Amino acid sequence: MKRLLTGNEAIAHGAWEAGVAFASAYPGTPSSEILANVARYKEIKSEWAPNEKVALEAAIGASLGGVRSIAAMKHVGVNVAADPLFTYAYMGVSGGMVLISADEPGQHSSQNEQDNRWYAVSAKLPMFEPSNSQECRDMLAEAYDISEKYDAPVLMRVTTRICHSKSIVDTSDRKEVAAKPYKKQPEKNLMVPHYARMRRAVVEQRMNDLAEYTEVSPFNYIEKGGKIGVIASGMCYHFAREVFGDDVTYLKLGFTNPLPSGLLAKFYDMVDEVYIIEENDPYIENWVKAQGYSCKGKDTLPPFGEMTPDVIRKAVRGEELPVIDYDRGLVVPRPPTLCAGCPHRGFFYELSKLKNVAISGDIGCYTLGFAPPYNAMDTCLCMGGAFSVAHGMQEAFDHSGQNVRAIGVLGDSTFFHTGINSLMEIAYNGSKAISVILDNRITGMTGHQENPGSGRLLGGDPAPVMKIMDIVKALGFKHVFEVNPNDIKAMKKTFADALALDEASVIVTVWPCPLKRMDEEERGLFGNPFTTRCVVDQDKCIGCKLCIKCGCPALSMNRAIKKAEIDAPQCVGCDVCVQICPKQAIAKEVK
Fold this sequence. Notes:
Elements: E1 2-6, H1 7-17, E2 22-25, H2 32-38, E3 45-48, H3 52-64, E4 69-74, H4 75-91, E5 97-103, H5 117-123, E6 127-128, H6 133-149, E7 154-159, H7 160-164, E8 166-170, H8 186-189, H9 193-216, E9 221-223, E10 228-233, H10 235-244, E11 249-253, E12 255-257, H11 261-270, E13 273-277, H12 283-290, H13 309-317, H14 344-351, E14 357-361, E15 379-380, H15 386-400, E16 405-411, H16 412-428, E17 434-439, H17 468-474, E18 480-483, H18 488-500, E19 505-510, H19 520-525, E20 532-536, E21 555-558, E22 563-566, H20 576-580, E23 586-590
Parallel strand pairs: 2-3, 2-4, 4-5, 5-7, 6-7, 10-11, 10-13, 14-15, 14-16, 16-17, 17-19, 18-19
Antiparallel strand pairs: 1-8, 6-12, 9-11, 20-23, 21-22
């Protein structure tokens, strides 16, 4: 059956076809839709995990239990999951296990542009790189066969364009795979040094065996054309074909660890000059040069960013296709901003007023607090790092006698991810840093996935709510403040109370994301929110623009009359602007 699928959808369908029984993930663009689509198949037990390490460990456990499993995450998530990944490479599998790493060339929504192909090399894992949705499905089926045949977890590396681009996919029915009976094998599955040293030799032999497979893999092949050669994998293959067409000879690589030295030799016998088109690091280029061949790679193409056809065409041929010219001065810039009614708005509005503070942020919607009009974030490192960084900054300030207070800010999903560990650092070491948890009761940035504090499982079934306030108090904090961030006066007082303390404190802001779907019970917890909207009384408005400083996209200035106005369809009645207006020119009304 032919279906039009994104790469993420094709991976999900491929997992179902391959007989996968367990799936776990932590959402992260561009991988988030993988598990959301896997969850549609009732034969697969699908779960959101608190973080990527836990997701991979659960998938490993399912594999050890005898069933096929899959874990999915974005590239930086593999950093979190690296500890179990490297050791499971030694242990091998029972049921086949595949890890999907979704890389981000071009950094569309990521804090770095790392190349996770190196994880396969370093951990000594077989690796696939699909170039379209069909290959996502086909390679996943092959990956499970390879996993079980060679007793190895498999890494599948995809990129943003593959994850989100659609193409026609030939699909088939599910192949049921019987669970393998569990048996105790401590010498294989218990990695104390004595057993690990023996398994180290097994891993090396496995890579030797895979070196034979890569030469005959159906996903590594030559397409004969002209005397110019192009080597590419993943989406770069299609980018290159758009530029060169059939005029060159291609070495298309889909199974990329280990790489096929014999096939490479045959390829070089057919061509006079070779270009290597790859995104991020010169992974293939370094291998080709190590085999003793010359090539044009990162000396010709950019060292980072996406290798789109335009980039390739300009770098290799010095050509640029004509484009429609226009007056760029007429284009209104649209930087990312917090949504209308976002509960983080009142928090950042008051935070931006504080003096002598250093603000450590984190990964989430609230990272936008760095931008105007708030300018209320000084640094952002990684998921869950806000409190640890704030602690280190505070220690430095205290040591050097600087009159600066460190404030760490992260969200509820990030708190459950690894923020709890950071908060333990604060509690254990007696830090003076102020820690803030922005609880909007959902994983907002990646598409409103559930988390341990949202009260719902992946499929929507009820789940126990892990109350952040209770967790924080259990860690031993004496000063814990809970506040509605839409209440400007309460937010201001809470900051003042926390700053007045000469010891650690935790602020938990609690208000739901306005885009979250809530049932009647949850709506009742917050007094049936988002049923009002704000309106401007033009007679009272003096055009002072103070309301605009709250940064709400529903607010704007009418240039003709020099008065504020509110776009009614956007407004959800959070009333932050009502509290800011000095002339009571803004009021709430029922929708």
